[in-house]
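Page header: ASSEMBLY MODEL / two components / 686 residues total.
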Amino acid sequence: LIEVAMSKRRPINKILVANRGEIAVRVIRTAKEMGVRTVAVYSEADRGSLHVRLAQEAVCVGPPPSRESYLLGEKILEAAKLTKVDAIHPGYGFLSEKADFNRACQAAGIIFIGPPPESQDAMGVKTNARKRMNAAGVPVVPGSEGPISDEKEAHAYADEIGYPVMLKAAAGGGGKGMKKCERTEDFSSLWQTAKRESLSAFGDDRVYIEKFLEKPRHVEIQVFADHDGNTIYLGERECSVQRRHQKIVEESPSCILDEKMRRAMGEVAVKAAKAVGYVGAGTVEFLVDAHRKFYFLEMNTRLQVEHPVTEMLTGLDLVRMQIDVAQGMPILKQEEMVRRGHAIEARVYAEDPAKNFMPSPGRISYLRVPGGPGIRDDSGVYTGWVVPQFYDPMISKLLAWAPTREQAIGKLIWALGDYHVHGIATNISYLRAVLRHQAFVSGEYDTGFCGKYQKELLEQPDAQYEQVALVAAAVAAYRRDHDEAEAFAARAGMAQATRSNWLRIGRARSLRGAVR
Amino acid sequence: MSTYVALLDGGKREQSIGVKQLGPGVYEVKIGEETHRVDAFRHDYGTVSLIVDTQSYSVQLDQRESGVRVHIRDSIFPLEILDEKRLRMRRAAGKFTVEGRQTMTAPMPGKVVKILAKVGDEVREGQGIVVIEAMKMENEMKSPKDGKVVEIHVQEGQAVEGNAKLAAVE
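Prediction written out in full:
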């Protein structure tokens, strides 16, 4: 029996991380802990990126646009062969859900740290996934059978099922190419935008339509499976705080789940994973409506951005588990999984909430981050780093863990207050306003939260501190002027002294002639 | 005593502040009728510990091209601080207005994905003129005023730097 188990094992001693930013840093750190060597890949815009510095080897894979670098499977595989790695960790986004890349890895004899390509085929195109899940008896959100190619036909379908509707990229994820359409008048322009964004993000412009549910909450279940057929769920994450259809605050446990519903959703998620022969870390996303009915939304066949929420709650390292499973090792049993306390994640973005969350690339002139018990900062940046314009503007994920939800909220609020990023705009004060908002505190919120409270969430500065701000700025200006004047005087004095000394020596020498 | 003028709310409000040094790191600061004893200890590039009378504050000064953003507790105050000479120069340079021709510039580097108006079009304030993609998100650049598009400087598909001219509305 032991021999059989051993023969399935394929040791991983070296990993190429096919990603950038905080997730590449995150994967490299766990690999180091495990004594696994790492290779970073980077675009020309990322030469100075943190993941390049932390990995033991690094290979440049092309120019800045991701379509010419991080999305080029061939280039990544070339780098993997060059550096002779055992496995590739795709992170999230980029190639993480591309079944073709997964197959190319297999063909090259390199382990793809993720599910088999067949599971990705089944879940990757969202419309196929919906069909599969329907067949497996998993409830799905009502909507179009498949992607609709003709705009007129799509428009007619939307009119028929009634507004609001969601336009979604068939190849999508991460809010790219996703638009909520409220009225028939807006359909055409939103349809075009969804198609364009989808093409640019996934190289695929197919879009389908879903009915928009009443007060929907986004609740997802983390699942994990090994090669021996064990599939478990690691509880839920509530991700209803979203702007531009991208999650910005995630927490666990969810306020609307009780033990019974958690088990029911967990079991459905396991069923969904098993239906596609899933292996490794995956996330089954659900929408929960106002009546606490849940519907399958999609399955993300990769590690999720917000996976640290589950890690803080369970004490597990999901990246380590991914690598273990990829080496053929078994996972823990469902009953061995323990969940404790409450964890919340806030995503720090280089963007300006006051300007409709416009991205704000640029140089970080100063960075100071919080720490302490129960605080975790998964960051990919440093002081002096120029946040490039080419990629997602997320710069870090800040998490707090505490025994209760109330304490976790309090902890994350002060931690965000101690998070200082200068030189670029960030959403930090917006995140703090979210955590303080009565609707969030009460737990009574849905995916409409950011839209509904848009005005309240843009905090105005507290007038009582204005005088202090003026004092600070004036003292700083005084010191700068004073330092400048002093430095100028010092330099002027030194120059004079220097000049006269050199002159004196020079003259003395010329008078004496060439003295040996 | 040195006198500074702070411009608040994008220049709509002014406040003059007098600063006198009493000793190393200790200042007397006069704002309006109030005088405070201020002890300023600079921790590092961006952080100053300020004790104003007895209140203790951790203050972050984020220096930008357009001025300074002062972070205190949970508030951010964008302001500009000028000495008297700079203020006089500023006054001589004239005031900001939306009258006449307004040039729209790219707020960040990115790619032009769509142009929504052409030269000669009548546009309303807030109407989208150019769509720029940066960091995988599309952003509509809107007209600052009612008027007519008189210049378009970019083409669809073109990469633009931050502050690049996009269009002009008159």
